[in-house]
Amino acid sequence: MKLANLLMERRINMNLRARTKDEAVRELLEMIPFEGIILDHETILKSIREREEVEDTSYGRGFAFPHSRTDAVDEMYILMGVSHQGLEDKTLDDISVHVVCLLLTPSTIAKLYLQTLSGLAALARTEGTLDKILSAASKADLIKLVSDTNVTVDKQLMVKDVMRHDVATVTLDDTLKEVANRMWRNRLSALAVVDDEGRLVGVIDDRDLIKAALPDYKSLISNLNDDIDIEPLEELLKKEDKIKVAQLCRDDFEVTAPQTRIVEVAAMMIFKNIRRVFVTEESRLVGVLLRKNIVNMVIRG
Description:
Elements: E1 12-13, H1 21-29, H2 41-54, E2 58-60, E3 63-64, E4 67-69, E5 77-82, E6 99-105, H3 111-125, H4 129-135, H5 139-148, H6 159-162, E7 169-170, H7 176-186, E8 190-194, E9 200-205, H8 206-213, H9 217-222, H10 232-238, H11 245-248, E10 255-256, H12 262-272, E11 276-281, E12 284-290, H13 291-299
Parallel strand pairs: 1-5, 3-6, 4-6, 7-8, 10-11
Antiparallel strand pairs: 2-3, 5-6, 8-9, 11-12
């Protein structure tokens, strides 16, 4: 089913007056009473704010997807608002929010809710979508351009619906210092290693860095009370610009495809006790699925 099929003209606001995301949510909710539907706005707002406190739903590329599963509604609502001037809230890529998609579903609906969120995210990632939405002359034009993107809401939850598309990577020629800096900037414990064509060739994690400083760590454990003449970590720092990723990375990583069912990968992660699975298409890295992504999106919502 196309994402556009879930959109309704009466639930689209082409000219938001709001200046903040919270105000935009209130303004979008104001459209519902015109349909003769009475909702408990305060309960809905409380639920949305609680979700925002857990994690900011400003997605990026000028889009924000405030959402909530709440018993205050008995059907799924997709309310879309366009702010031509841009809200005061900015997305993680430092772009002002221009499109607010409010998604509300009953607590009993899970799969369609997650699939729709994934579809909205795919819409935001489609090149040129924001400019086209801002240029749309009418609600009908907006729905048509969403239809033209061919973004679909699948019947089953796939890896592509949950995975991270922005994967931090390093190359075989990068240094240990560059690896450590990239891990710190992205708050990650591991990085994918790719070649010049974007093909996945290895993985390097924080354990690999520490092992490089402590190659003889087993003997150190058995002699912790002995004096060590050379501090291993200090010695590693002296060589951080010389040690290459090629010397430390490993090729024992798990991969999957974007179209794999999420339950299959989740089961594999539990069985093999792994935290991450890289997502590839024809050997090219296109995403990464972390255990916390499954918890955050599927379980927590």
